[in-house]
Amino acid sequence: MNLLFRLVLVIVASLLRKRLAPMEKSCVAFRVWPTDLDLNMHMTNARYFSVMDLGRLDLVVRSGLAGTMLRNRWQPVLGATTVRFRRPLKPFQRYEVVSRVLCWDDRWFYMEQRAETPQGTAAVAVMQGAFVGKGGIVAPAAMLREAGMPHESPPMPDFVASWRPQSLPVEQAA
Question: For residue 172, what pLDDT is reported?
Fold first, then answer.
């Protein structure tokens, strides 16, 4: 609930800002508010995940994928993420969440997101995400084709290939 106002602001701002090319970076400015702090008086680790959700929302809306997603009733989901924290974000400090798609395979998009300050990177995350429809995961190439975007993935960076989570067995519901 405490991110509701940020959610509304990001949606409105995303609709008003210039459209992004498919592989262009999204930058969303934030400030560390008292509700973002932990006992150490810096932004709590969990909040990074929340503001990165908002960064991905800006990227989806400004790239034009949101309309395709809504028309087809596809929902975004995360499959995996890893974050490396480099320096703390202090109360009332300004920072930007910079989001970009790195590549995709037959099931997943791979993204990098950074929390950036003038002093440098506060955190960097690599994420594996997909869009899910009634029939399961929507292939990224199919989604991009539906949106009228280039659907050939850039080469997968070595660090993504080595990080990429392997398929884990999933229990089937009875």
Answer: 53
